[in-house]
Specification:
single chain, Dehydratase, fatty acid synthase activity, MaoC-like_dom, six-stranded antiparallel beta sheet, HotDog_dom_sf, alpha+beta, Thiol Ester Dehydrase, Chain A, Fatty_acid_synthase
C-alpha cells in the first residue's frame, strides 16, 4: 500500500508484519555491511561477553523497521528522518526457524508541512528490541 497525505490520520496503524531472522541472514548481512563482530556468528564468543547466544546486528533490526516504513510509503526516498535506540538484542537460535521479529507502526502526527511522524515497534520473543523508534516521512 502506498499512503498519501489525504488518507492519513493520527492514530492510523501501519500494516504489521513479522520477519524471521536466521543465522544465514546474519552471514549475508555481515557480508553486505562489513560488520564481522563475532557476537553475530560465534556462540562461544557471544556467551563469553555476557550475551545469551548469537545476536542479530542492531542495524539489521533497524533496517527491518525501515522496511516496514518504506513499504507503507511506497518509496524509501520519502523517509526524511529515522531513529531508534537499541534496547534489547535479537537472539538468533541456531535452527532453521531463527528469531521472529514482529514490526508495527502508528501515525503519531500529521504535520502542517506535509510530513507525517510515525512511531515504530519491533518485538522479539514478546519484548521490545528498539526504543524510541520513529520515522518522519513526506507523503504525496
Amino acid at each position: 500500500m502506498t499512503a498519501t497525505l489525504a488518507q492519513v490520520n493520527k492514530g492510523d496503524e501501519l500494516p504489521a508484519t513479522s520477519v524471521r531472522v536466521t543465522r544465514g541472514d546474519l552471514v549475508r548481512y555481515a557480508g553486505a555491511s562489513g560488520d564481522f563482530n563475532p557476537i553475530h556468528y560465534s556462540e562461544s564468543f557471544a556467551r563469553q561477553v555476557g550475551l545469551p547466544d548469537v545476536i542479530a546486528h542492531g542495524m539489521l533490526t533497524m533496517a527491518l523497521a525501515t522496511r516496514l516504513v518504506s513499504d507503507w510509503v511506497g518509496d524509501p526516498g520519502r523517509i526524511v528522518e529515522h531513529g531508534v535506540r537499541f534496547t534489547r538484542p535479537v537472539v538468533v537460535p541456531d535452527d532453521e526457524e531463527g528469531a521472529l521479529v514482529e514490526l508495527s507502526g502508528k501515525v503519531a502526527a500529521v504535520n502542517e508541512d506535509g510530513t507525517v511522524k510515525l512511531t515504530l515497534t519491533a518485538k522479539c520473543a514478546g519484548q521490545g528490541v528498539l526504543g524510541g523508534a520513529y520515522a518522519l516521512v513526506r507523503l504525496p
